[in-house]
Amino acid sequence: MEWKVALACTNQAEMLYQMMQDAGKKMAQQGFGQWDEHYPTLALIEQDIAQKALFVVMSDAEVVACFALSTEGIPQYEQVEWAAPHARYCVIHRLCVRPDQQGRGIGRRAMAFVEEVARKRGFEAIRLEAFGENLSSLRVYEGCGYSARGEIEAWGMPFICYEKKIV
Predict the structure, then answer these.
(1) What is the pLDDT of residue 47?
(2) Are 67 and 96 in contact (CB under 8 A)?
(3) pLDDT confidence of 154, banded at 50, 70, 90?
(4) DSSP-assigned letter for residue 146
(5) CA–CA distance from 3 to each of 86, 112, 120, 167 (Å)?
(6) 127: alpha, beta or left, given left = phi > 0 and alpha = psi -120 to 50?
(7) Using CA atoms, how far apart are residues 121 and 149, in angstroms rounded to an integer?
(8) What are the pLDDT digits (tens) for 29-81?
(9) Secondary structure E strands in 11-145
(10) Residue 141 and residue 129: Cα distance in Å, rounded?
(11) pLDDT for residue 122
């Protein structure tokens, strides 16, 4: 099995949007409707692609996951006591594993690619906010060595902020 990560292409936007919508439906079936028809939007995905912030994880030339990396966190990050407050950091957004591929370790593989891309781009730490009720994603982040740094509320929902130094 050959794995690789690449920047998402414009012609993948619709497929990635559908993958995220399918993941949102699966989350809703599991009892936490974090992603819906309002988020993430096709326009947001197209913006990520245009900014060269959206990456696809491929297994044997098939997209199995995606993630966005940016330098922008949400305003609530100011409430968090980060372990590396002065580190040059990036933020993971919209990590998504294709629903029919979940439970196979792809989330952990995707996180390894996140760290590889972040290092190549000169970042020293990675931060993210994870929906507090999505226990499977929390286990992935913690299993990959991310430390919980605090709880916040965003968009009317509970989130746990995570951080990992990568240098």
Answers:
(1) 97
(2) yes
(3) very high
(4) P
(5) 33, 11, 18, 23
(6) beta
(7) 24
(8) 988 777 888 899 999 999 999 999 999 999 999 999 999 999 999 999 999 99
(9) 54-59, 62-70, 89-97, 125-131
(10) 10
(11) 97
Beta strands per DSSP E along the chain: 3-7, 54-59, 62-70, 89-97, 125-131, 147-154, 157-165
What does each C-alpha distance from 117 to 14, 18, 35, 131, 132 come to in angstroms?
A: 23, 24, 25, 23, 26
Question: Could you give the CA distance from residue 111 to residue 99 in angstroms, rounded to a whole number?
Answer: 17
Whole-structure pTM over 0.85, yes or no? yes
User: Residues 124, 84: contact at Cβ < 8 Å?
Assistant: yes
Tokens read off for 127 = 């931060």
Q: How far apart are CA 154 and CA 45, in angstroms?
A: 20
What are the structure tokens assigned to 153, written together? 């509320």
Give the type of residue at 127: R
